[in-house]
């Protein structure tokens, strides 16, 4: 039986908004070879958006083959139906969540402070989150990515900037995270694929996200050097991948050889 492949997206399938050379062909080959695929992203967007984007790049993908930290977040929030939610600081994500959840702005009415990308961060928003956490609100996060690849090139700060600011002024730490490398993320991916840790492989460009996810969950890992990680970063990393490739384009050959079992 072929192992299921849990694939990162940004830095793995595309980089700076453009498809990485050879990836479309590699994914086609993996499908022909019978590997179940699941794209797992720390970007809190609806799966349909990613599916449309992949299809537009020539990578046929169904929304059911995509799992994002937003999908997992919504499943967690469904268990907190009456909770007042405060998003810091992403207006687009807050508007999406407002369709099914109670958004609160008064610190006394906030039950969950959700840290996410700092796209719309202001001092006032930081202060509302600070006051709510000081009053005992739960501290959640979509992910803890320190930075992401910008579509215009280079890197820009991400959710870790918000988490760090709130942690620094309140002494609180994140109690629940829905993205990689959290246990919630690993469990959701394996449940979606219908397999156990020994029947899957995590493939991605992030040591602290993709490779840590596999390491923590007992899943084999393939690190790609097509995104945020350089080969020299491995020397100081507390987690080590099982295999290292330059890009996803080489994955079919790896699975026919050293990673075959």
Could you give a short description of this structure?
The protein is of the alpha/beta class and 261 residues long. 34% of the residues lie in helices and 20% in strands.
Provide a descriptive summary of the structure in words.
The protein is of the alpha/beta class and 261 residues long. The protein folds into 2 domains: 144 residues, HAD superfamily/HAD-like (Rossmann fold), CATH 3.40.50; 98 residues, HAD superfamily/HAD-like (Rossmann fold), CATH 3.40.50.1000. Helices cover 34% and strands 20% of the residues. The chain is built from 9 helices and 15 strands. The strands form 4 sheets. A 6-stranded parallel beta sheet has the order 5-4-1-13-14-15, with helices on both faces. It has a 5-stranded parallel beta sheet with strand order 7-6-8-9-12. The chain has a two-stranded antiparallel sheet with strand order 2-3. α5 packs across α6 and α7 packs across α8. It is globular. The model has no long low-confidence stretch (mean pLDDT 96).
Mind sketching the topology for me?
Blueprint: E1 4-7, E2 14-15, E3 18-19, H1 23-32, E4 37-41, H2 47-56, E5 66-68, H3 69-77, E6 84-88, H4 91-97, E7 102-103, E8 112-115, H5 123-134, E9 138-141, E10 147-149, E11 155-157, H6 159-170, E12 176-177, H7 183-193, E13 200-204, H8 207-217, E14 220-224, E15 243-245, H9 251-256
Parallel strand pairs: 1-4, 1-13, 4-5, 6-7, 6-8, 8-9, 9-12, 13-14, 14-15
Antiparallel strand pairs: 2-3, 10-11
